[in-house]
Design goal:
about 30% helix; methyltransferase activity; SAM-dependent_MTases_sf; Methyltransf_25; Rossmann fold; 12 strands; three-stranded antiparallel beta sheet; globular; transferase; 10 helices
Length: about 270
């Protein structure tokens, strides 16, 4: 089996330029309006609350639009990602916007060594991040290591039930693991989740699902206390093509037919004891 980090990094490195140019990441809006923030962060503003003055780090930050959004809400942000081109893009764009954000290239499991132990009031991670990691226990240990006592984890993620569904069928059919597995699910897909005409060469990825119980148990094991948990029937991308609709005035996608059947994403918060 190839090293998952090498395989996945090649895929993400290649997609950086296409994502930065895509209208879905809205870099033009960020540049035009100093108050503009990402749809992902805006969705969770009622749950985030006031982050002014907090020392925060965004793990697996990609090109940094959520990191920038948190900085615009007053947090003193760092970002970390394993992709060199992503970090270069994020740092350059933050500098262009006049924001003091430091971005670092490193594997997420090395974050404490790179960024410092017990250094942060807030660890943030967004949608489509933890599925690239083989061990949710190691991730939880990393989060715990980064947080000061009383510091908060804030994660919005794709729901593990959503990740089990086979979108190649007409029905909602469970086709993939719900729980973490030793071996990854290996995919070979040429596209990406944003609007682009780019044809990619690196199309193989290695991914893992992590059940809600596994995530919560790992956080508790590593000294965090769950403080909030909410499931959502929507996602900020078309997770199931042909089966989802975006309602007028709402930034996210739900099942067109009886959306109450499926949790698409969740928001979880926990505090370091």
């Amino acid at each position: 089996m190839d090293d998952y980090r090498v395989v996945n990094r090649e895929s993400w490195d290649e997609r950086v330029a296409a994502h930065a140019a895509s209208p879905d990441y809205k870099l033009a809006e960020f540049a035009r309006d100093p108050e503009f923030i990402s749809d992902v962060v805006r969705f969770d503003l009622p749950r985030l609350g006031d982050v002014s003055g907090l020392r925060g780090v965004h793990l697996q930050c990609h090109i940094g639009t959520d990191t920038i959004s948190l900085a615009r809400r007053g947090a003193r942000m760092s970002g970390l990602d394993f992709s060199g081109p992503a970090v270069e893009q994020a740092q350059g764009f933050a500098d262009q916007l006049g924001l003091e954000i430091d971005f670092h290239q490193a594997d997420v499991y090395d974050a404490v060594e790179v960024l410092g132990a017990a250094a942060y009031d807030l660890v943030f991670t967004g949608i489509g991040a933890i599925g690239w990691l083989p061990s949710i226990d190691r991730w939880a240990a990393t989060v715990s290591g980064l947080l000061k006592p009383g510091g908060r984890l804030f994660i919005r993620e794709g729901h593990p039930m959503l990740w089990t569904l086979d979108d190649a069928t007409d029905k909602l059919e469970v086709g993939f693991p719900y729980f973490e597995t030793r071996e990854p699910q290996v995919w070979d897909e040429g596209g990406t989740y944003v609007e682009t005409d780019v044809e990619f060469q690196h199309t193989v990825t290695h991914e893992w699902n992590h059940g809600l119980g596994e995530i919560i148990t790992a956080l508790i094991k590593h000294g965090l206390q769950l403080t909030a948990f909410e499931e959502h029937d929507s996602a900020p991308w078309i997770a199931l093509p042909g089966k989802m609709t975006k309602d007028p005035g709402f930034a996210e996608w739900r099942l067109t037919d009886r959306p109450e059947r499926l949790p698409c994403t969740y928001t979880l918060q926990a505090v370091k004891l």
